[in-house]
């Protein structure tokens, strides 16, 4: 199976051929994959070098001319390093574009903490008007990317090497999908966390919701899953900073007594970089770690 990043390159290359209003801005990362696209569309495929602030500025400038820019590099260099440009050049100027990241929270541990971005979604959460997609499979990444490229709004697509075994349908509304029904608590699995959550909750009387779009947050979907329970226990499992979506879930359940547990990447920096699976285990995001914490919270 190809990776989400492989699929992004193949899909964007096709979209550039199909849509003359689409542009691509790179900062060296993935440039080799777009070699043909750069030669075919030299005025719409631009590599700015290792200049991430310019990367965002150039993308927003293209948007001001009427193009639909797709802007790509590692998450830490796409959101964190040029955050001021994301805030001003896209948000303050009121233009749209598609930011597509690679690297996720710790896809390449050997790159060190500079190449890790567990706080990217939380950081974007401080800005208004961003749609955030977190696919859990290359097929989902392609569908979400195609939808984003066809729009005119501000979209962040967060790609990862971690992937679920199979794709789930990606609806146009961006709502949560019910994967498993139960009468106890509700567990929301975001993107590539789904397989581990399903393994961790096997045999538990809990509803499992799947989210590939986390902003806007599907409060209606959460309320439907809670149903007519007199109180709600909700667990949110995200592949980035723990607790990123707890406030959104709290807002959705203001009329109902509830408890919320946010699971994800801890704030503590792990300096023994190891491998991606070791980071999952260290943060308790492997099936065993999730089983212990979800089961404990739900009273199992």
Structural summary, described in words:
The protein is α/β, with parallel strands linked by helices and 300 residues long. It has 2 domains: 4-158, Rossmann fold (3-Layer(aba) Sandwich); 177-295, 3-Layer(aba) Sandwich (Rossmann fold), CATH 3.40.50. It contains 12 helices and 12 strands. The strands form 2 sheets. A 7-stranded mixed β-sheet has the order 2-1-3-4-6-5-10, with helices on both faces. Strand 11, helix 10 and strand 12 (258-265) form a beta-alpha-beta unit. Helix 1 runs parallel beside helix 7, helix 8 (194-200) crosses helix 12 (287-298) and helix 9 (219-226) crosses helix 10. The longest helix has 15 residues, at 4-18. The protein is globular. The model has no long low-confidence stretch (mean pLDDT 96). Pfam families: Transket_pyr (PF02779). Residues 2-167 form the Transketolase-like pyrimidine-binding domain. InterPro entries: PDH/Transketolase, THDP-binding, Transketo_C/PFOR_II, Transketolase-like_Pyr-bd. It comes from Streptomyces laculatispora. This is Transketolase.
Give a brief outline of the structure.
By secondary structure, this protein is α/β, with parallel strands linked by helices. It has twelve helices and twelve strands. It is globular and about 60 Å long.
Largest sheet: 7 strands, mixed
Task: Trace the largest sheet across and list its strands.
Answer: 2-1-3-4-6-5-10
Task: Find the structural class using helix and strand composition.
Answer: alpha/beta
Topology, number of strands: 12
CATH architecture of the largest domain: 3-Layer(aba) Sandwich
Span between termini? 36 Å
The overall average pLDDT, rounded, is 96
Beta-strand residue percentage: 15-25%
What's the Cα radius of gyration? 19 Å
Would you identify the regions where 5 or more consecutive residues have pLDDT less than 50?
none
DSSP helix fraction: 25-40%
At the first level of CATH, the class of the largest domain is Alpha Beta
Going by CATH, what is the homologous superfamily of the largest domain? Answer: Thiamin diphosphate (ThDP)-binding fold, Pyr/PP domains
Helical segment count:
12
Total domains? 2
Note the run of SSEs as H and E.
Answer: HEHEHEHHEHEHEEEHEEHEHEHH
In terms of quaternary structure, what is this? single chain
CATH topology-level name of the largest domain? Rossmann fold
Shape descriptor reads globular
Organism: Streptomyces laculatispora
Pfam family, one: Transket_pyr
Protein name: Transketolase
InterPro entries: PDH/Transketolase, THDP-binding, Transketo_C/PFOR_II, Transketolase-like_Pyr-bd
């Amino acid at each position: 199976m190809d990776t989400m990043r492989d699929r992004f390159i193949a899909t964007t290359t096709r979209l550039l051929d199909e849509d003359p209003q689409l542009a691509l801005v790179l900062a060296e990362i993935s440039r080799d994959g777009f070699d043909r696209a750069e030669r075919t569309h030299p005025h719409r495929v631009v590599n700015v070098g290792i200049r991430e602030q310019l990367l965002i500025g150039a993308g927003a400038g293209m948007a001001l001319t009427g193009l639909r820019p797709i802007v790509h590099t590692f998450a830490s260099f796409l959101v964190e390093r040029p955050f001021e440009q994301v805030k001003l050049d896209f948000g303050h100027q009121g233009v749209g574009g598609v930011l597509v990241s690679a690297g996720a929270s710790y896809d390449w541990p050997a790159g060190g903490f500079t190449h890790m971005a567990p706080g990217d979604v939380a950081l974007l959460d401080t800005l208004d008007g961003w749609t955030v997609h977190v696919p859990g499979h290359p097929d989902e990444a392609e569908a979400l990317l195609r939808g984003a490229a066809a729009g005119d709004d501000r979209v962040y697509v967060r790609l990862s090497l971690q992937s679920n075994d199979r794709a789930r349908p990606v609806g146009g509304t961006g709502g949560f999908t019910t994967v498993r029904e139960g009468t106890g608590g509700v567990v929301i699995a975001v993107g590539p966390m789904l397989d581990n959550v399903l393994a961790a909750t096997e045999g538990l009387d809990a509803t499992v919701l799947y989210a590939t779009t986390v902003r806007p947050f599907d409060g209606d979907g959460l309320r439907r899953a809670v149903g007519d329970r007199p109180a709600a226990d909700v667990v949110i499992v995200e592949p980035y900073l723990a607790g990123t979506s707890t406030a959104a879930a709290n807002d959705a359940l203001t009329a109902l007594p509830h408890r919320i547990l946010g699971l994800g990447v801890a704030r503590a920096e792990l300096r023994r970089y190891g491998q991606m699976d070791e980071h999952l285990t260290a943060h308790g995001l492997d099936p065993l770690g999730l089983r212990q914490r979800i089961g404990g919270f739900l009273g199992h």
